Structures
1.
Amino acid sequence: MAMLSLTLRSLLNRRYTALLTISAIALSTALLLGVERVRVEARAGFAQTISGTDLVVGARSGQVQLLLYAIFRLGNPTNNMRWDSYRAIARHPAVAWSVPLMLGDAHRGFRVLGTTPDYFTHYRYGRGRALEFAAGQPFADVFDAVLGADVARQLGYALGHDIVISHGTGAVSFVQHDTLPFRVVGILAKSGTPVDRTIHVGLAGIEAVHLGWEGGTAPRHAPTAAAVRAMELTPQAISAVLVGLESRLALFGVQREINHYAGEPLTAVIPGVALQELWDLIGVAERALLAISACVVGVGLLGMLTAILSGLNERRREMAILRSVGARPLQVFGLLMSEAWLLALLGAILGVVLLYGALWLGRPLIEAQWGLYLAIGPLAPREWAVLAIILGAGTLIGAVPGYRAYRYSLADGLTVRV
Amino acid sequence: MTDATTPAAQTGPAIQLAEVQFRWRARAPLVLDIPALTVAAGERLFLRGPSGSGKSTLLALLGGVTTPQYGTVEVLGQPLHRLGGARRDAFRADHIGYIFQMFNLIPYLSVLDNVLLPCRFSHQRAQRVAARGAARSEALHLLRRLGLDGALAARAVTELSVGQQQRVAAARALLGGPELIIADEPTSALDADHRAAVVEVLLGECAALGSTLVFVSHDRALEPLFHRALCLTELNRAGTV
Ligand SMILES: Nc1ncnc2c1ncn2[C@@H]1O[C@H](COP(=O)(O)OP(=O)(O)O)[C@@H](O)[C@H]1O
Ligand SMILES: [Mg+2]
């Protein structure tokens, strides 16, 4: 106790160096914890994006690419699959349900997904949670739209709002179809999945937007909504299909069958497997980032060692005085060790404060940018462990100057020359 | 203010050295070779000698900082040469007040906290101070006796003049009335006026507390103030290197 208050005052006396040291440790700690947290949240968010779907089917492509556009709404399908291929899959005796997905359009930067109302019953996330409606109901009419939670919140849309869907996926589109607006009939509750950032309409709605666009140029005479409703709007092709099977025992058989489908080259992926592959892909970068962050913490702690060691020579006198009034070598050792401990502790605490500050400030940005929702919860056991390691390493590092001071005070003791 | 007669030893000598030989390292030259040295309890001894003659080294032996390769060092009846490092540390903390030539104070502690420093490390000294009253007021009392008023006590030691700093160091050495005060050229950084003042109060306090004083200095003008004056070269057979 006597030593700790001495340590504190000694540090206060050197507060600028101490503050710099603490800042370095704090920043590196915050960085490491931040990377760790984003990593864990990303992985969890990832694995929970889709559940209950046995197969995702699309035109022949890599399984990661298929997963990215069909589930994560990232990138675009290079090819569509034919409608009759979808019908064939849907009719397969082992298939319990199937939901067609059509992508390629956007509204103010949010992806528009053409699908069937079944999507809302069969799409599951987390541990089999179904999508819930915060307001309204699934689309029924050609020009009905259901918004993901983020779409409604960020664009400030409510039920009954009219929206215009643009051709293509850019945030700003020059070709917009003002004449055929969609009406918001449903808003989904937040799910923490890409669904939140999606606008859902019926397949017929997507077809309606594209009426007359087949040549690639805007149609001369836009049809009226009533005329569109009277049309037969079955698509020629779709982007992907979500498939649920009667029995998971048939999984590999059906997957193989689809992969060898005679009508056109198709790819069927098992979401869990593709997610794992995708994660392994990201995992390398993730682990590299973690390693770099750990190194930064190491650099921060080495900075502390440098600061303490370089100050030590000037403080030889201080040590000798302490020894002369009765401090034991071990207490002098403890003085230096507790200094390192205190610096590391303050650094770690400040690091946690920084982490939460950054999380709080950065969360909306990260969510808007990557759809990654970072929960601001208490520290996880792993994070506590990281902090404990930093504190332990910092304290251990203090043993170096501690030992030197210990040696000094023994060798020079009271005969320290000025 | 100091009587020049040697006080009667009531409890045996404070310091007794016999056949002491000391070198700092195994291959280093012999620094001390002292056949005998006795200092009575309550005696105030003046020790001089040329620079490098081993005065500080002798004080290190008396303070239990180190032990001789040969011979015996008994301080206040304790055979320091036989005690382990930890025991000697505890002994020093409990029974010895130490004053250096200069830079005696911890820069980040106030004047008062510097004086109170021994109480942090020695339970026995803390208790002895407590027996006379609160440690704070005891420290303030000592500072006042040494010519430093209460307003100074809360100041940072770095704001003090060298003379004031040495008086603070003296107050610290005296706090809790340790039986032995060791002063290693405490006045050499002071001008003549301050020198006399510091030495006088130091001697006065030692007399009041009954402490034994070993005082190293080059300034022979101070000699008459002490019970006895010794030159280390006469005492030390290893004097000629
Ligand atoms: N801590 C030490 N380690 C090694 N040698 C020392 C140490 N202190 C003093 N010496 C050596 O011991 C000799 C006597 O030094 P010292 O006792 O300081 O003399 P004085 O105090 O009389 O000037 C010198 O040669 C000095 O170099
Ligand atoms: Mg000396």
2.
Amino acid sequence: MTERTRVEVELTVNGRSHRVRVEPRRTLADALRDDCGLTGTHLGCEHGVCGACTILADGEPVRSCLMFAVQCEGMDLRTVEDLADGDRLHPIQQAFWENHGLQCGFCTPGFLMLSAGYLAQNPDPDEEELRAVLSSNLCRCTGYQNILKAVRQAAEVMRG
Amino acid sequence: MIPWIGQPLPRFEDPPLLTGEGRFVADLTRDASFLRFVRSPVAHGRIVSIEAPGRITAFTADDLRQVRPIRPLLHRPDFHPIEQPVLASGKVRFVGEPVAVVVARTPEEAEDAAEQVFVEIEPQDPVVSAPDALRPGAPTVHDHLEDNVVVDARFETEGVDEVFAGAAVVVEFDLRSQRQNALPLEARGSVASYDPRSGRTTLTASVQSPHVIRTILADLLGIPESDLRVVVPDVGGAFGQKFCLAPEDVVTAWVARRLRTTVSWVEDRRENLMSSFHSRDHHYRVRGAFDRDARLLAVDADLLCNIGAYSCYPVTCGVEPLMALAEFPGPYDFRTYRVRSRGITTNTCPMAPYRGVSRPVITLAMERLMDLAAVRFGIEPAEIRRGNLVSEFPYSSATGLVYDEGSYVESLDRAVEEIGLEDFRDRQAAARSEGRYLGVGISVFSERTGYGTSAFAARSMDVTPGYETVDLAMDPSGNVEVRLGASPHGQGLETTLAQLIGDELGVEPARVRVVHSDTDRTPYGWGTFASRSLVIAGGAARLASDRLRAKLAAIASAELEAAPEDIVIRAGRATVAGTDAGIDVSELARLAYHSSHRLAGGMDPGLTATATYDPAGTFSNACHVAAVEVDPETGGVRVDRFVVVEDAGRLINPMIVDGQLHGGVTQGIAGALYEEIRYDSEGNILTTSLMDFLPPTLAEVPTIEVHHLETISDATITGAKGLGEGGTIGAPAAIINAVADALRPLGVEVAEVPATPSRLRRLVSESERIPA
Amino acid sequence: MAPGYYTPAFMKPAPFDYHQARSVAEAVAHLGEYGYEAKILAGGQSLVPAMNFRLARPAVLVDINPLDELDYLEEDGDTLRIGAMVRHVTFERPVTEGPTGRLLAMAAHHVGHLPIRVRGTFGGSLAHADPAAEWCVIALLLDAELATRSPSGGRDIPAADFFQTVFTTALEPEELLVEARLPNLAPHTRIGFQQFSRRAGDFALTMAAVALEADDGPVANARIALGGVSDRPVRAGEAEQALEGQPATDESFRAAAEIAAQEFDAIGDIHGSADYRRDLVRALTRRALEQAIST
Ligand SMILES: Cc1cc2nc3c(=O)[nH]c(=O)nc-3n(C[C@H](O)[C@H](O)[C@H](O)COP(=O)(O)OP(=O)(O)OC[C@H]3O[C@@H](n4cnc5c(N)ncnc54)[C@H](O)[C@@H]3O)c2cc1C
Ligand code: FES
Ligand code: FES
């Protein structure tokens, strides 16, 4: 197979710079996972529906399977690996743990980043808004009950 | 927090999963080349040639001639085995069947390579549905099987026709359940690594049963089992889809050996929807005979299960029809029963067990029967059930299953009370006068769990699963390591077992390490499926703990100069009952290893125990009640409330139990209203994205209200019964009965799941009483 | 000879060359150079899934995300001017006072989910021309004008001529959509927006957007646009006419909805037949009219 053209891209992930050589067609999700070694971001569909790949780009929750790495130079990218502060879990992580908001844990990084991005801008969401936002992602295990409960609790904790 | 049993302990499994430290198969491809399967775009046809450009590394069935085909077996005369080559050989039998495999350095390049493999196929007429496959002259999927019937099982008690002839009321109906995909959020995949030094191959795979997979891999590849190691990393859901052998895993292991390197296969969502195991797809014709007091006297059922193009290993495609046959009566007490249950092969994706297996459909059938009869008798659905539910235990069913103690009537009464049935009927009547259609639906069912070898042997399986073995060791520091053959993936078994063992051995659960999912480190076992792990692995753990505890007590009794029966082990200490005298468990552990000369005569040094548990099985039971509103103009259904009253015996960790129920019910709602795999008449699959196959989101799922009853039966040694599948088994019937209840004034009967908006709308517009 | 086939399933894009446009002029120049080979990458929320499936395989991708010059909203007399790169999420709160802003906000909440809305753009949605896209239906309802730039200049295309069939617009390969001009609805216009989808966030099976004036008297300036029912968004012209001058009653709404349900070529798919689409039009049009009059 002929060598395809790769380009050098500098990604800023979780505050650290990663210089990677990728083909233009490499999605951001694949670049994070395979080129930056940050495998906490998961792939459940690669067509925008499941949300397992949700990360924050400049503070906003986005589907990383629907962006290309070459587009992301200069963006502040945040993944699930960035949430905890050393051994101290982020309040959303803590709430997922305490409320059994995960079973297999495959959807979890996506839900955590979705909630983190949303709560940062909407610290006091009403129930209807919260349900609408959390319906962005799919979970096959939990039936969503405890995810909703966890994010509600996290919002409270974060408001202090 | 003693006892630990019964505590909603947060799970030990969670922290890595919360921080991105989870390790799933696709996270382990760093040193691997990437495989991509070339798949058949044709449902049925003869392969004429396969051409790949020379610069591509590609393999076809010709290269894999040494690999045996998958040939799942049942030893019974009504079963006809069919074979599956791991890459299509000679013929293709469904769209998505692996035909060739290519190897490349990146996933993208692997797709580029697959794109260049050209397959010439002479198409043949396909057969897509089970009824079509039975028609005379229908195309045959497997040449040796002219009628496409793989299993044709019958069961009949005496006097069926007589009972029907003498019945006061006979209710008769058809039922169709469409196809689903279990849809774990992580699709399948594996990494195979050949180690030239040892000659061993390690398959790291997203599967539910590492030991069984190792055995069959060794059989198919023709190598000693000791040359293989199967490791299961974190698994992103499975629900049955990862229990049976994936032909792709065999090819992955084969390529690694052939190229003496590391290769990976990561299934994507489209492949998963197209060619990973499907499930359900049943056609039923059901008749029920009632006496004038609305007592069910007899059931006569004809069940067709579309099993797809191939049979799945190890359980075989008999699993759906045979379970349907044996368990159809469910929680109802009747003695006269006739059933014919067939498994039919077609040019569609193969089937494998999915959460609930046949039971979501047979429960739907029995619960529809009850509701249809209730309408005929003009009584409440709850009332007709009360009169027919099993209420004395042990109960032996028409097919000879023995039900241990349960709470069938109690769960019904409680659920009806929780939903507030009388108030609901008032609201329903008021709403109807405003042109709104509310409905309530009940589903009572039994969930057979903890199937041991005796239960599986009844199906005459070539491979008879059932028991589990647990190795237990307390190390010199007093920490406990448990090794088991079961392979949990999201069920929280590590936490639950730690609670169970913690109580037995007087250690904190955090000091119990559970080792699983690695054939090099665990005793042979069957994996995690069929709501069995807690019952069976838990039972074995309990037995092993008892043995270890006895040894601890014996050592303590010598040290404390008391009788072993007077030793109490609790909270890290062994004490003499009624005294202050005691010794730390960790001190006993140290002594057992480092001062073994002080052990009583005949006692071996160290603290280890092994136990195997193989129960006959136990029945959980539950009642689900759904309240819905149907919009007759759009056919849309909104689930307003969902009540579960569950009896799964003793609850070890109630938080985990509720999580299983939430998830199970959600999958049941999905099956009742949303999810459907569709094929066209040519056998092309139409639902290969999550825009077409529709797992529900939070917006479609109501708050699931869970209540527990705890009937402790002696069928299991922990008192716990399984419940992993119950939510999925009961929910479709509750939802569909509620939808039917809502639409009854319009003269509509619901006979097909999922009850999609377009189907419901068509029923409403075809009904005579169409609203203006 | 037996027919030959290639494998049917992909999930990673075919290779392409990538250009990041630093100005509209540069983007247009790229389009001029590569023509059919090139595709504009806006929010990527429709294009990238299609590329992952290899259903779309442009040889060249021209990324217009850096173009702040296309990310603007301006009130220009009676016209709301929307730059092509304004993201869906912007419309969740009314971007302009009055019924136009409210209508856009009502619809915005139905466009996919939050992470889709954060990236997806107004212009991308119009250019993609999904028959069930909210922005396409609203552009048609409001008789929007769509402004383009191309190597030979540019033009303004009325929405009625813009949407041609499924995923197909009047845009030429070398044409960039730069702006949508929405004539603001009169302040007292009443609006309704109804849709039915299988799940939250999914493309609607059918949607109805309506605008009408009916302060104390009969209905005037009624507009009805429908999505998801045909090969492109459609106006229910006959139903609009039937409403004109009628009292704003259940009865006339019902009659108009019935006409709307019959007046176009309905298309079915796996989620429902053409007849089902007509049933949905009937129900949703009536409800949208009722909603308009009751709010
Ligand atoms: C899970 C999911 C759910 C969704 N649900 C909905 C929904 O309910 N309703 C809805 O309307 N949409 C929905 N979408 C689609 C989404 O709104 C897209 O954002 C939109 O259709 C396309 O806009 P984009 O900016 O993402 O364009 P892109 O995906 O970047 O481009 C789409 C097409 O338009 C072309 N194009 C883009 N911009 C221009 C331009 N300025 N000039 C010329 N050509 C251009 C591109 O070349 C491409 O062919 C959904 C998407 C996903 C993934
Ligand atoms: S993997 Fe990106 S949305 Fe599913
Ligand atoms: S926890 Fe398994 S998919 Fe959400």
